[in-house]
Amino acid sequence: MTDRELLEQILTKVNKIGGLELSFENLSTKVEHLSNKVDNLEQSNSEINMKIDALTNQVVLLSEDMTIVKEQTAVNAELRPEVSDAVSRIDAIEMDLKIMKKVITS
Predict the structure, then answer these.
(1) H/E element holding 93?
(2) How far is the C-alpha of 26 from the C-alpha of 20, rounded, in Å?
(3) Which pLDDT tens digit goes with each residue over 37-87?
(4) What are phi and psi of 2, to 5 degrees?
């Protein structure tokens, strides 16, 4: 093998190494880009989890409020007949008083 052929082989291998270095740099850039995307996704996931926690707390509070409303509605439903009965009695007493007034004044 001549010196020239040996030199050409060395240059060919150096060029291949240079190409490999460019490929490595390209891969390194892509890995860094993907790493940034993963970081952004993790941050978004964290924000979503915080929002889910906030919504869960609101649902718990609304559930407690609904329980109170249900209890108050039940109490009001129990009181409604008593109020209606009291109004009927007052109407009857009013009618009795009118009749008594007519009897007394006539």
Answers:
(1) helix 3-105
(2) 10
(3) 999 999 999 999 999 999 999 999 999 999 999 999 888 888 777 878 888
(4) -85, 165
